[in-house]
Amino acid sequence: MKSEILALLRESEDYVSGQELCGRFGVSRTAVWKAIGQLKKEGYQIEAVQNRGYRLASRQEIYGQHELESRMDTAWAGKTVCFYEELGSTNLQAKLDAENGAKEGTLIVADMQTAGRGRRGRGWSSPPGTNVYFTLILKPDFRVELASMVTLVTGLAVAEGIRSTCGLEARIKWPNDIVVNGKKVCGMLAEMSTEQDFIHYVVMGVGINVARQDFPPEIAQIAACLEQECGCTVSRAEIIVSVMKSFEKYYDIFRRDGNLTGLLERYNGMLAGKDGEVRVLDPKGEYTGISRGINSTGELLVERENGAVEAVYAGEVSVRGLYGYV
């Protein structure tokens, strides 16, 4: 009820009467008063005026469970939020929850991580009060070979979420980074549990650099944060909600089609380095070519000097103009 009360107060430009809140939730005035008191303890500035009701005096963000729940207006993605002040890793917690019966769409969010991870087991800097760290639990009914495309759907959703929240021209660096002005602002990590041709669950982890911060020396030249790039304060809760709304929309299209056909135009329009030079680190030998976008199964199409087009399924791809590749 606290999240619903908070949502009503945020949406209203005037006072909301205690009677209205009682009627909306079918509870007593005492229950409403207690809920308001608990929100105040969390840090929300709520005015109470006799014969008028309650009003949110400040629109400040108190990043946490109720802030996220009160903003979330999706049908299923992120509809259930589990917020933690501190976790080892949101992906690890999500896998544990998925194995214990958490439903699809459950969102695990942490203010900080002590053991955040990126691709290939690399560490992911996860300080408190600065960034977005979340993992979405999915329990798909499609074939195992389609699971790798979930990362691309997520990338599209994150790029769109950043654009709509911050006004920045976020772009996707295939397959799992988001860049702004040539620097990395987000990384993604998908993990899954399968049995032969059946997917038990997929957990989709996302880390987004939001507040101004000092990055570790090894990434200082390639990393950026949203507030630095847009020059204003960015709501972490708003970004998460925006990403969930976009993900829900695009994931439903992906499931309907069974591939990325319905998302190709949108994805390729946001792809960093499309029609520009890329370098592919292939086990058979490194080569350069021109990026022609992705195909319906999520492979990156790279046109080589001889005109042949390679479909890159996985591996390291450097894009000219990004991460020091000049």
Helical proportion, percent range:
25-40%
Structural class: alpha+beta
Strand order of the largest sheet: 3-4-5-9-8-7-6
Tell me the quaternary state. Answer: single chain
How does the overall form come out from the CA principal axes? elongated
Note the beta-strand portion: 15-25%
Order of helices and strands: HHHEEHEHEEHEEEEHHHEEEEE
The radius of gyration is: 22 Å
For the secondary structure, the number of strands is 14
Average pLDDT confidence is: 93
Which runs of at least 5 residues are low in confidence (pLDDT < 50)?
none
Tally of separate helices? 9
Description:
With 326 residues, the chain is an alpha+beta fold. The protein is built from 9 helices and 14 strands. The protein has helices spanning 2-11, 18-25, 29-42, 65-71, 90-99, 149-166, 226-230, 236-257, 264-270, and strands at 46-49, 53-56, 81-84, 107-110, 132-138, 171-173, 177-180, 183-195, 198-208, 277-281, 287-294, 300-303, 309-312, 316-319. Strands 3-4-5-9-8-7-6 form a 7-stranded mixed β-sheet, sandwiched between helices. A hairpin with a 3-residue loop joins β1 and β2 (53-56). α1 crosses α4 (65-71) and α2 (18-25) crosses α3 (29-42). The longest helix is centred in the C-terminal third of the chain and has 22 residues, at 236-257. It is elongated. It starts with a helix and ends in a 7-residue tail after the last strand.
